[in-house]
Design a protein that fits this description.
Two copies of one chain form a homodimer. The first copy, chain A, is of the alpha/beta class and 443 residues long. Chain A contains twelve helices and 25 strands. Chain A has a six-stranded mixed β-sheet, with helices on one face. In chain A, strands 13-12-11-17 form a four-stranded parallel β-sheet.
Chain lengths: 443, 443
């Protein structure tokens, strides 16, 4: 039945992770002499830069995700396995996944990162992060339920708490979430309630460092803060969160009461370093050679958020899609070269710029020394994101949804799904029972 | 803060359920002297006739659902409460919902129906039904995971079992599900696997009665069966299911092995009869007066799937959207008339026809004595469904997704979401643990 006939001489490449890095490597190996196996714990590739739009009810999960099998359908030498990897047997060159052992000659680890709570893992129950589709639909439910609960809450202090939203972390995700929640409350929901006024919701963005968007030029940080403020977001920089619980956050001596706290501060790489028993940095990223191979294992590579790669000036490469994509492409090229007995110069990242959007029609863009902000930057941001979305259908759907949202201020995907009986209690105390309620729903 | 000022003299109408019946009643009371409260356990109105398209990955949940608050936004005398109703205090005219008591002068019960297992409630774990968005995304996950599991399953018998799909019930839902699963397997997934051939999947539609689509003319039943067979569906009529377990179903002496069984046979009305302590039929529907009021309670009405209403010829009105909509409109009109000291003639249903679709481009349509089948019937079916979809955005999105699916055979929403660690075991034995795994995901 299989049309991938593995000849004895064919070299087997296993790629763990179908994110930007893993897919880019798989594409790079298309029509090569390698037999490629792509393993992911989900059956879809996720366009993570737009995840915050699912969390704030602007897009559906299927708008920003496509089945991995479809994406690599035409790569006839690539097989896909849906499985969760639990380890790597380095001595025998095998990947361990759900009781199976998958042998490899070359291995590419592109398993990404999860959010990290700086040693406060107990905060996770109160301040969910945003890395997966399930994270996004969970956050969407939390945010929408907070307004529903406020509508019927007799106690004024609790109503206030329900309508306060704290976002921890002033990077791109935090800035985009804060802008999107503010617009949701102040525009999309404004006319839909009879008791509460959603426009009175407070959105507070807390950043420990001295400015928002540290990866951008300082002038754009200022522009972003000003744009957020004009949307009604309260921006607090130089403010470290010292405590998170079910009733809010503490920032030094100050207490901010809030039932919804979103975590957008700091990530931790997946378990690749532990699997390999190799050196990592403090965030768990594997420290790799300049050809992205793992020290002592010339046939094992780590790319994307899993890898620690420094530039010539000593800066760490950021955890963004272009880095992962370029690295995946590089490793594919390197493997092809090796097959021909050749080698390649070290990996070098080409920075084509950074973008972040603030609300419905503003963005900041930085391409080298070129800087841009405001509406035109937003148009550029939109075009770039739609262009890089995988699959024509998704591009078309997202473009139309955005146009619709832009013109009408509506959010079409305001669905509270996957909720069992304990619906309301979930917002009041997410720790009740198992922390997360037993749900059936899905995207 | 509230802009609904309840004057002492204003009559309070409570509507339970924001389905076709409840919304139609709320719209009918728009701009009236009544203070209307609409209660639903979900924050969205669901266009149930297209639910099978979510279960088979053709549409996203948000394509067929819209927030209740948005739908009634312009009905300034209508408030919405998100809550699960647990009972009715008939003596005090109060609805009980999550610890609250909501008083009413008039009450409209439009709480719909759930699937029923004819006294075999233990079958529910093995043969999920299709009534809610969470049902649909759960089924979508089950169906997609069956193929994923088959791809890596070494045992041939188990692989066969994973690729058999049984649909129990040959009404519109069963016929539509069978056609959609067959097209999913034989077209959309066909080229995406390397080990299994999804086209070899068996889809078996089992109906206890003598023909499919009993609500239609017999000639259309034959046409539907023939269309399904041309898609590769095995149609078994006069076949009663006697057993359902994790490995398949028994039909009389015959055993059909299958890991995925879909329940589309028989419904049971919600608990309204029990709440009221009034007479119901065997399916739990409240037997109402000819003005749809509950015997002994002229101010309490039951409509839609909750009500048992017979036509002049003695036939029971079917559980379809047009019946619920006409009944909601009728009760609203009746309440308005009563306010003016008038009354109305008994409710009478106008049958504008029935439609069912088979796969991507065939349907059967019956309007009175007029019958139609094939591609033109499918076009009519599509136009009618898009026309009745609530909200312009949904209409546009659904039309485009259908066009896209039609042209490419692709299913854009093939996402397996809301899955925790026990992903694969779920298919093998849905009863493991709590029956349904603890999930976080949502639509």
């Amino acid at each position: 039945m299989s049309d991938v006939e593995l000849s004895k001489s064919q070299r087997r490449v296993v790629i763990i992770g179908a994110g930007f890095g893993g897919l880019s490597a798989a594409w790079g190996l298309r029509d090569s002499a390698f037999a490629v196996t792509l393993i992911d714990q989900h059956n879809y590739h996720l366009f993570q830069p737009l995840l915050y739009q699912v969390a704030t009810a602007a897009l559906s999960p299927a708008d920003i995700a496509g089945p991995v099998r479809s994406v690599v359908r035409d790569c006839r030498n690539v097989s896909v396995i849906l499985a969760q990897v639990s380890g790597i047997d380095v001595a025998r060159n095998e990947v361990l996944a759900e009781g199976r052992r998958i042998p490899f000659d070359d291995l590419i680890i592109a398993t990404g990162a999860r959010h990290a709570y700086f040693g406060h893992d107990d905060w996770a129950a109160y301040a969910p992060g945003l890395k997966t589709i399930d994270d996004a639909t969970y956050l969407r439910r939390r945010i929408l339920l907070a307004f529903e609960k406020a509508e019927t809450e007799p106690d004024a202090a609790e109503r206030r708490r329900l309508m306060n939203f704290v976002i921890v972390g002033g990077g791109a995700t935090g800035v985009e979430m804060a802008g999107a929640i503010a617009e949701l409350a102040k525009r999309a929901l404004a006319a839909d309630f009879r008791v509460i006024d959603p426009r009175s919701a407070r959105v507070i963005l807390v950043e420990a460092g001295p400015r928002l968007l540290p990866a951008f030029d300082a002038s754009l940080s200022t522009a972003a803060a000003r744009s957020l403020q004009s949307l009604g977001v309260e921006v607090r920089v130089g403010a470290s969160v010292t405590e998170v619980d079910s009733g809010g956050v503490s920032v030094g001596q100050e207490r901010i009461e809030a039932r919804t706290v979103v975590w957008a501060a700091g990530v931790m790489a997946s378990g690749a370093g532990r699997w390999l028993g190799t050196e990592t940095d403090r965030a768990g990223r594997v420290i790799v050679n300049d050809d992205l191979s793992v020290p002592g294992h010339p046939n094992i590579f780590a790319i994307g958020d899993t890898a620690h790669v420094a530039t010539k000036t000593g800066d760490l490469l950021p955890g963004v899609a272009p880095v992962a994509k370029q690295q995946g492409k590089y490793v594919a090229k390197l493997l092809r070269a090796r097959l021909e007995g050749k080698t390649l110069p070290p990996f070098r990242y080409r920075d084509y710029g950074s973008l972040a959007t603030i609300g419905r029609k503003r963005a900041v863009v930085q391409i080298g020394h070129f800087k841009m902000k405001g509406f035109l930057a937003w148009v550029l941001w939109s075009v770039a994101h739609i262009y890089f979305l995988i699959g024509f259908r998704n591009r078309l759907a997202v473009a139309l949804h955005w146009l619709w949202n832009y013109v009408t201020f509506q959010r079409g995907t305001r669905l509270i799904t996957g909720v069992s009986g304990s619906r309301m209690e979930e917002v009041a105390d997410p720790r009740r029972g198992t922390g997360r309620p037993p749900l059936r729903g899905a995207a």
